[in-house]
């Protein structure tokens, strides 16, 4: 497979929706940037920022924004599939993975269900060995009122002690993102301060072992999470049914209007709750089936890479080959922004 020397390495930015991934990636761009290619889309497309680390432009790193988890428009299965597509493309193109930036908003008061689910899935995607190049980054600090800073610092400590401790013990690190260009650059440079790169568990599973998405550790965990969520909904629906029968009996037995109205209101409330839960089950069940249907993601991505390589090479002058980064962005349909000025 063709990897050009200027493709350097890659850093992936991950985290739940709203964590601040795109904001971070945008902060890496100085005032004037050259855009590789643009897409005709009303929404801001995902970006990959290629930063040259020396004036000779022989060393670079590309920082890649990835899809967020808990996006209301897509199921968690779709998001897992999209994230793994990024990971498989990078690995299959033999672009060294220099690190992962895991973003989390310090404004999140308590760990949301989706944040917990994503963190668990992330650990399974990574595997233990890759954790030494994972940086947990808290964001939205500039949104914290000065009088609330103590609270935010306590939340940060709780993240470190309760949620990230197992990964920090295995070599991950943590820091704060202030929102500035310098802060973003510092985080990237820190991950680039050694020459090491990592291979994630899911990359070995999908590419080296040709597994199906649903068979990977992350896929199995998501399947279990979906099953658990469906089971909780169904148990609650059964409980609601019992409560509804009781409320109906009570309404029938009621001898005064006040009690009857109270029971009627209760029945309406239970009915609404049941409809909501049924809707959740209806959304979760296809997501479960889709996990199986995704099949051998590694194989599919490799085929896509070959097609894009063929197309890109056809556009080049004789004897020239498309760079790994050009193929990466073409496969994933993302915008490559080249920051052509050295940041060192
Ligand atoms: N003040 C402040 N706002 C932030 C920060 N990070 C993100 N935001 C805001 O929070 C919102 C969500 O941030 P994004 O960067 O789009 O989040 P994301 O992680 O890319 O989210 P998805 O693309 O949905 O996965 C936006 O309105 C940002 O302007 C930060 O560090 N400080
Ligand atoms: Mg984003």
UniProtKB/TrEMBL annotation:
Entry GO MF terms: hydrolase activity
InterPro entries (alphabetical): G_AIG1 (IPR006703), P-loop_NTPase (IPR027417)
Keyword presence, RNA-binding: no
Domain of life: Eukaryota
Keywords: Hydrolase, Membrane, Nucleotide-binding, Transmembrane, Transmembrane helix
Gene3D superfamilies (UniProt xref): P-loop containing nucleotide triphosphate hydrolases
Ranges of residues in domain AIG1-type G: 11-149
A family per Pfam: AIG1
Keyword Transmembrane part of the UniProt annotation: yes
Membrane-crossing residue ranges in chain numbering: 320-343
UniProt name for this protein: P-loop containing nucleoside triphosphate hydrolase protein
The organism of origin for this protein: Neurospora intermedia
């Amino acid at each position: 497979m063709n990897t050009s020397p200027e493709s350097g390495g890659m850093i992936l930015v991950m985290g739940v929706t709203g964590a601040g991934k795109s904001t971070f990636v945008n902060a890496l761009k100085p005032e004037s940037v050259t855009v590789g290619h643009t897409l005709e889309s009303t929404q801001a497309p995902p970006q990959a920022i290629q930063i040259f680390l020396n004036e000779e432009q022989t060393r670079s790193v590309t920082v890649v924004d990835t899809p967020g988890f808990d996006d209301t428009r897509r199921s968690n299965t779709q998001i897992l599939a999209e994230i793994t597509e990024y990971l498989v493309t990078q690995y299959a193109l033999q672009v060294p993975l220099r690190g992962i930036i895991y973003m989390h908003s310090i404004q999140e008061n308590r760990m949301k269900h989706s944040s917990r689910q994503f963190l668990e899935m992330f650990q399974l995607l990574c595997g233990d060995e890759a954790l030494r190049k994972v940086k947990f980054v808290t964001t939205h600090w500039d949104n914290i009122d000065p009088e609330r800073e103590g609270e935010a610092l306590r939340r940060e400590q709780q993240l470190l002690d309760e949620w990230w401790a197992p990964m920090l013990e295995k070599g991950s690190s943590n820091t704060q993102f202030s929102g500035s260009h310098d802060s973003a650059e510092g985080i990237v440079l820190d991950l680039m301060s050694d020459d090491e790169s990592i291979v994630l568990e899911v990359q070995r599973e999908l590419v080296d072992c040709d597994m199906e998405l649903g068979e990977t550790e992350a896929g199995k965990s998501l399947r279990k999470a979906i099953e658990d969520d469906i089971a909780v909904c169904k148990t609650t629906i059964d409980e609601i049914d019992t409560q509804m029968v009781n409320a109906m009996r009570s309404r029938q037995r009621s001898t005064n209007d006040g009690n009857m109205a109270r029971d009627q209101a209760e029945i309406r409330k239970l009915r609404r709750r049941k409809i909501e839960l049924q809707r959740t089950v209806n959304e979760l069940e296809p997501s479960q089936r889709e996990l199986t249907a995704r099949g051998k993601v590694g194989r599919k991505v490799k085929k896509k890479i070959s097609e894009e390589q063929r197309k890109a090479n056809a556009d080049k002058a004789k004897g020239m080959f498309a760079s790994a980064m050009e193929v990466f962005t073409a496969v994933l349909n993302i915008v490559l922004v080249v920051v052509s000025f050295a940041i060192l």
